[in-house]
Amino acid sequence: MTTDAFHIHPVSPLLGAEIRGLDLSQPLGDATAAALADALDRHLVLVFRDQRIGDADQVRVSRHFGPLDKAPITEHGRLHAPGFEEVYVISNVTEGGRPIGALGAGESVWHADMAYLETPPYASSLYALEVPDEGGNTGFISMYAAYDALPADLRTHVDGLSLKHDSTTNSGGYLRQGYEAPVDVTTSPGTVHPLVIRHPVTGRRALLLGRRPYAYIPGLSVAESEALLDRIWDAAVRPELAWHHRWRVGDLVMWDNRWTMHRRDPFPEHLRRRMHRTQIRVPERA
Ligand SMILES: [Fe+2]
To answer: How many C-beta neighbours within 10 Å does residue 142 have?
Structure first.
């Protein structure tokens, strides 16, 4: 598909599109920004390649989609790019013995960002400054497709259930500062959301799973909740539902955090990976 300003090239049958013809170091017009938001709604993940942008550009582009969060508190405290509190540094690089970013070099499990909030973030952008030669790819799953792919009996079963999303642990498996590891998932900190959510315009249903560790389905015993969650997750994160982005320096990837999950492959610790992320809140119009 082509708009006045850019071309949209889907990268997989289930989700993802490469946006060609835009230089994100230049101002975006309102019409172009609205067309991008529409493309994000339809394709869920947008990939802009060969961009040469700074933090100010990433913040400016991101603000077209909604208000920005500050960088979150991580296992190393709050790590943001110098001068930009909204730009979260994700990196395994250390300088002067101190980590410059979060999440190390390990795998991050399938998750949506901050689904434990009352209103989870709308979207994120991730810009690649340094990437390893191997590993470190980011996978995405459409949660519409994950819902559609559930066995029929399971799909009927999950409609109407809720899920408690754990707030103690980040996607790298690290405890957030100030939290203790949950002992009892029925009482540990978290936020309850419907397990199945619907797009406000299309009505299409999607699973809202957040992340697996310490999740709990209220009303069930812990054993029942674990067994049902295992079944749902096994069905939802099947490899054939996922698309994986292989990073190049200069890639900016945006994803809609509400209707997708993502994960990261591990990579060798001695290789450098340095990414800058913004996180976008749900705007008034969405
Ligand atoms: Fe994430």
So the answer is: 26
